[in-house]
Amino acid sequence: MNAKKPEMKVKKATLKAKKPDMSKLPKGRRPSRSPKPGDKKDESMKLQKRMLAAHAESLANAKKDGKKVVYTFVPGNLTELILAAGAIPVYPEINALQSGMRKMSASHIQEAERFGHSEDVCAYVKCDVGMMLKGNMGPTGVKVPEPDLLLLSYTGCFVFMKWFENLKQHYNCPCVMLHVPYQADGEITDAMRDYVVQQIEEKVIPALESVTGKPFDHEELVRKLELSRQAEDDMVWALQSARHRPSPIDAYFAGVYYIGPMFTAFRGTPEAVDYYRSLRREIEERIERGQGPMTPDGELKKERYRLVVEGPPNWTHFREFWKIFYDEGAVVVASTYTKVGGLYDLGFRHDPDRPLASLAEYCMGCYTNLNIPSRIDLLEKYIRDYDADGFVINSIKSCNSFSAGQLLMLRELEKRTGVPGGFIESDLVDPRYYSQANIKNRLESYLQMLAQRRAGGVKRKPEPEPVS
Asked: Is the pTM of this model over 0.85?
């Protein structure tokens, strides 16, 4: 079982994406709000909604259908490996953010704090633990099944380890940890890659085999990685379409929807391939018509500011937060949060010819596994490549993986680019740390400063000449 298996090269047939088999919406969903005039949904958004509903239904029926459930996290997730083993993945932080968007997180957090968790603990953790303590009823109104396995496939966030320690005690189920080396020197070495591959072979795959009771299907993994590669190409194209003027998308607020299928349960599936093909077609049409991005209140007609954003969004007031930006004509053309599940725009793709090696590279390549200098380099690249007028840092109170070093990053970026940065503060899913008036005031003042600089002819610093 633990013998080292060689990387398998399986001849790839032309893989055509099947039409998704979507189930009916799960019972118990909260009623939808009345649509607003700007709420016309694109086909890709409707498709994603059906995909999520079908996934929720499969989870609701997992125990009845004899399917094993694996809890894991978004950064560095091994979704293709889980799916190839015939199991169903669950992402606790996705449950938390969806709870935040549905105004359910506050009561979950209070429940966790009554249980003994500090106010300073990550709000995602408290939301998930509180949901668990209240019966594990998910944000869609469907009970989330208990895990058969906890798979910790990213260790760059210390909180993740403590989080799963709590869940292991509660559920009394097996837990396997994949130790992922930090990119302290800004690169992935052969030794780092081999170390992660060895763990996948000797720890993760045997754990999946033990839980599912069947040998791991390496050929199925290769097929799923080929589907991942196809979807990744279209996702990168979609995010990079923001280089156009006007940008046809908002790469932060709409971007969090665009990355959803890729960073969660659908990577490696025909549904994901279909979704990103549909999304690409829609964006191509917007570019041809010279249209700006869609917002909850309809199309943004005039692009006044192009911004880069560092840090996650606030989920409890997501719509109100976005409205501050589009009311001022501000479009986010690039963001680091949409890279939390992988830096595909820098060239990474899952490789069916190197299945385990490319999975290892993926685990080490997510944004929060980068050191501070690498993060600054990436943000500078986005400011220049996307011709941004400015950049904004949303510092999250309870997320040190993002917030540590952000003021240093702001000052260094201002020094390198000559572009002033804006700084706001909020939290992930704890509504106590979101102030609409304060954030609105800061952002409006910041954008007014950008307008004055533009009127005065102040330009961004040119990119320095490479050192020979």
From this structure: yes
